[in-house]
Amino acid sequence: MPFQTLCKQRYIAEGETVPFAVDGREVIVMWPDGGQPRAYEAVCPHDRQSLVNNSDFNGRILICTVHGWVFDGRDGNGLDPQGCKLTEFPIRMTGDGMVEIDVDTEL
């Protein structure tokens, strides 16, 4: 499926995460401080726990509060432990202020 509308850009903000449900999948849009918005499957790769209600984001890193795994908000790479990564989906901002996502393509 091609890109589909996720939300208006004003609903996401730098330094925050926002959860969404897209085609039956939990997704979080994470906008790290000084970076660009990124979209990830809202599931920790450790134990497949949802990150929607089980995570903390400080504007730079995301921590899964179930088992303490830590991820870089700029690229989804695991910081603790290293060698893991959140599943990322392409997102884009349109000229009319909308955010679009493609959940059929993984980056």
From TrEMBL:
The keyword Metal-binding applies. InterPro entries: Rieske_2Fe-2S, Rieske_2Fe-2S_sf. GO terms for molecular function: 2 iron, 2 sulfur cluster binding; metal ion binding. Signal peptide: none annotated. This is Rieske 2Fe-2S domain-containing protein. Pfam families: Rieske. It comes from Derxia gummosa DSM 723. The keyword Ribonucleoprotein does not apply. Keywords: 2Fe-2S, Iron, Iron-sulfur, Metal-binding.
